[in-house]
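Thread: sanity check for a docking pose with pyridoxal-5'-phosphate

Original post by kr_44:
Hi all, I'm comparing my docking run against an independent structure prediction. Below are the sequence and the ligand SMILES. Could someone generate the full complex and paste the structure tokens? I mainly care about where the ligand ends up relative to the chain.
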Amino acid sequence: MVDLMSQYQKIKPAIDSAILNVIENAQFINGPEVTNFQSELENYLNVKHVIPCANGTDALQIALMALGLKPGDEVITPSFTYIATTEVMALLGLKPVFVEVDKDTFCIDPTQIEAAITSNTKAIVPVHLYGQAANMDAIMKIAKKHNLFVVEDNAQAIGSDYNHTNGSVSKTGTIGDIGCTSFFPSKNLGCYGDGGAICTNNDELAAQMRMIANHGQSKRYYHDVVGCNSRLDSIQAAVLRIKLPALDSYIDARRKVADHYDNFFAQFPQIKTPVRGKESKHVFHQYTLTLEGIDRDELNAFLATKDVPSMIYYPVPAHKQKMFSAFGSENTVLPITDWLTERVISLPIHTEMEQDQLDHICAAVKEFIEK
Ligand SMILES: *Cc1c(COP(=O)(O)O)cnc(C)c1O
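Reply from moderator J.T.:
Ran it for you. Here is the predicted complex with pyridoxal-5'-phosphate included:
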């Protein structure tokens, strides 16, 4: 699905010397690489505070811990997402309230949010799935009206520009109260292990999240709140400092692959290519088709016989996971989410795709449809 080795070969000298430099200076934890990466990411995102942490799941957990919620409080979120988004809610004793997604954008449908709000609702966690932003203007409007926090799950969309209805532009992850991202190797900005970050323009939330990520420590050996231990390694920060300046070109490369797929698949009425909403620049973490009239699982199996990797993100929505059975969420009715989980398939997309690889993938899909 991704080719991290070819990408590494192109930046090898810079990466190798950056990693060696960390080892030679023996500043493995919270060294200058981490603080420099932090300010470089703040500049890139045009956000006041970036708090690096150990992974994207921790980022979400720390964000929710900082909001001062109590057990039983409800958080509105899509069910059509990676499990990390909703797992951290359960871990903190919060109740995920699953809301339907938009069939075209795969992101939470803002028109369905207000019906899910109760007196216990405290936050909305939209997910910018596959690299395209949820409708943040609509979500922020609802949040403001009902006095709710908004935490963006930006793990799949870092680098995306959001076009507000008033004409201004923000990076995704900087629009809500807090944005969370992941530097898992296959993410659009990936390191060589685990990594994550939280961002916010709110000084108080930033201070609170920094404290939580560091054992709730306010000054050395004084711990004011229950926190956790979540740090970005210096070696990972050094890798990310090399890759951050390339992020926009990586996004362009992904968008070129998506353009090629879009053009090719336009000939097949059974294939719905990703809809690109005008609200944001799709950064194509995944290139995901919706199939109507051809069997998704058969195509998936056929592609494997042609040495074409394909993946189902995600075969089981959160509300149907056993994990949430204690919440009674299997009774939640989300027909669009269920429909999508049976029909989506993601094709390989990465920064180093060659024309012959694309041609091979497209030909394999065509062969399946025409056989
Ligand atoms: C990857 C991902 C996460 C979790 O990130 P990790 O770094 O793997 O913990 C959370 N949410 C979404 C939508 C993701 O894709």
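The chain has two domains: 4-245, 247-370. Hope that helps with the comparison, let us know if your pose agrees.
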